[in-house]
Amino acid sequence: MHVQTLHVAFDDTDSRTGRCTTHLAFKVVEHLKKEEGAKLVDYPLLIRLNPNIPWKTRGNGAVCLRLQVQDAGRVIDHIRQAVEEGSAIGSGANPGVAFLQSDSVPAELQKFSALAMCDVLSRQMAEKVAKAAGVQYSTFGNGQGLVGSLGALGCLLDGDHTYELIAYRKPENCGLPRVVDKERVIKFSADTYPNTFNNYDRNHGRVLITPHGADPVFFGVRGESPEVVASALPALQPLEEELDGWTIFRSNQGTNMHLQNEIRVAGAKAYTAGHVKCRVSGKPYAIEGGHVIFTVEQDDGAEMPAAVYEPTGLAKVAIKLEAGDLIEIGVGVRKGTTKHPKILNVEYLSVLELAPAFDVLNPVCKMCGKRMKSEGRNKGYQCDRCKHRDVNAKKIFVPREREIKTGLYIPTPKAHRHLTKPLQRYGIEKSS
Predict the structure, then answer these.
(1) Which of 88, 228, 362, 430 could be bridged to 223 by S-S, CB 3.0 to 4.6 A?
(2) Rounded CA separation 130/421 (Å)
(3) Rounded distance, CA 384 to CA 216, Å?
(4) Domain 257-354+403-415 has what CATH class?
């Protein structure tokens, strides 16, 4: 029988309380290899989509499998059934599964995928693109998962990418506390630096490889190559429980893929993601909780408030910004409400140029050298010591050294989103 190339993608199979799209992929691949003789032509792809979508479940991740199969129809039927039966449809999941029989991925699908990283796309738009690209699909629930499915299907990851080894729990262990040796995680992180990332947050003494929900993921280790993430399995042994299995995914995690789009604040759309080049136009101020708010302005005069949240660790930098500073910020656009305006939620802060800063002082008395006091608006100054008055004296502006420097500031690791590029990855991005 003729070998066929089949691209498969599915999304929104999990809920906020359980299941996992990558675990379903693990089970599907396990079956296809054993029962269908299918071959993967790439690692399974774990594609994280726009993290600002409010109706996402947890990580807003979809999976794509690129396969060589003998009987595409049989494989499609199996995967469609697996997605329906393996999804938490009654608990809020709205799965979509998409199939493309082709040796290449159509341009319109790639374009849709690029938009899915940073924009808000409708199911109707997804259906239109699927039809134009010759994609078969099935949906369940309200079918919103079709958007993520097409987003993953069209993502080639032909630029920067990373890998993640995900280890899965046996069903009887799901919901129990995950136990890993903290010291082994610390040692593994140090031994593999800079080629793995976000294993451990030294600032807060927190292990980052284990999730906290009832889903079947035991741990996930992210890095630059399949070999380095695979080395986590022996390095973290012995484990407290027997694993159900593991899979290595190729991914856009840790790449900032969602922030490549340039946003103009004048027309910024709620829930979109991207980066904004702007100047600080208002003095930053702290609000309850330690969060920092400041206003930014672009070259067309359009302004918008920006928020830096305390858990990111960036608030202590943001509070030191001054009006006139030139910055670039990676952002998600939070929708405005009757109580709060639309605002830019800051994900990273790059200080490009610092505006001069001055301390403003009263003038010094020419007679005795003591600093004078103002007599009132436009009334000059008088010296308390010798009573000398000077109606022509002016405030003195003394240059002040800034408390921050130009450069890139990113959140502390525990506050990273799946797509956040860690500091150690800057300069080692892949081009293919």
Answers:
(1) 228
(2) 31
(3) 75
(4) mainly beta
Quick check: 323 and 308 in contact, CB under 8 A? no
Q: Given this structure, which CATH class describes domain 4-153?
A: alpha beta
Domain 162-251 carries which CATH code?
A: 3.90.600.20
| pLDDT score at 349 | 99
The whole-number pLDDT of residue 197 equals 98
Distance CA 303, CA 148 (A): 32
**Can you tell me the distance from the alpha carbon of 364 to that of 10, in angstroms, rounded to the nearest whole number?**
73
Q: Hey, where are the domains in the chain?
A: 4-153, 162-251, 257-354+403-415, 357-400
Contact 406, 351 (CB under 8 A): yes
Section 405-428 average pLDDT: 97
Cis ω before 54 (30° cut-off from 0): no
Burial of 195 (0-12, 13-18, 19+ CB in 10 A): middle
- From CA 346, how far away is CA 316, in angstroms rounded? 13
pLDDT category of residue 18 using cuts at 50, 70 and 90: low
Same-fold call for 4-153 versus 257-354+403-415: no
pTM exceeds 0.85 for this model: yes
Residue 420's closest CA among 312, 318, 262? 312
At CA 13, angle to CA 8 and CA 14, rounded to 5? Answer: 145
If you average pLDDT over residues 371-380, what whole number do you get? Answer: 90
Quote the CA–CA distance of 173 and 170 in Å, as a whole number: 6
Q: How far apart are CA 26 and CA 220, in angstroms?
A: 14
CA distance 218 to 415: 20
In tens, the pLDDT along 309-318 reads: 999 999 999 9
Which of 122, 123, 36, 131 shows the shortest CA–CA distance to 76? 36
Exposure string for 367-392, b = 16+ CB within 10 A, e = fewer: eeeeebeeeeeeeebbbeeeebebee
